Amino acid sequence: MTDTPDILQRILAKKVEEVANRKQRMSISDLEDIAQGVERPRGFYKALQAKVNAKKPGVIAEIKKASPSKGIIRENFQPITIGLDYAMNGATCLSILTDKEFFQGAEANLQMVRERCPLPIIRKDFMIDPYQIYESRALGADCILLIVAALGDAQMHELSDTATKLDMDVLVEVHNADELQRALTLDTKLIGINNRNLRSFETTLQTTLDLKSAIPAERIIITESGIHSQDDVQLMLDNDIYAFLVGESFMRAESPGQKMRELFAL
Ligand SMILES: O=C(O)c1ccccc1NCC(=O)[C@H](O)[C@H](O)COP(=O)(O)O
Known about the structure:
Keywords: Amino-acid biosynthesis, Aromatic amino acid biosynthesis, Decarboxylase, Lyase, Tryptophan biosynthesis. The protein is α/β, with parallel strands linked by helices.
């Protein structure tokens, strides 16, 4: 096991700086104006709900160039081509990394893909301030990610309420039972269980299996990270988990969409 310094704390420290700089460049009310001119949210939750109700896999296909645990994952990184490939091959939603420092993402990637691709999109970034929620809507995001481990209770509720006010969906992400209890105090129907330990970077699908029984039936469980094989997918389906967030195994394939089709038999 790698003894990694707490990557989340490093990312969050950088986000505090980043948000402060952005606030100097554009006011929240200007962002609000821009957000109002953007096409309405596409229904991220609804798209997943339709799959889950039909007991079919709903795949949130990730567009990610690099990560702290894996370094560069995909050299030939063409976000629009990847987004269209996912859409053509049956993805339900997209996840687009916008963090630059740690994931080599970009906000422009989300905007460009949204213009060309009809799928609902989650902005995958580290939300700590309502400013970023307005910014996400202004970029065209349909859903935002809230990582419980990164947030205090009041902060988490404030961010979720801001997203709801903007008609966006919220995916709340947990890694353990304590975080899950906190996540369940939110109204959101989307609960992501991240199988990656953010200290060791190890992934185990057992995390999803261990936590799922504490989640009420009306919520949608999304298993996140570490899905690499048809057996992994089958294990989740056998345990009534129908929503998946997958990045690396798709991104390492020449055609991420075909890889998705292969893993999920779409
Ligand atoms: O992936 C990392 O190294 C990482 C480090 C710190 C915070 C988050 C991190 N990953 C984000 C994700 O949750 C994944 O991109 C997502 O679940 C997909 O995982 P995978 O299919 O294993 O690429």
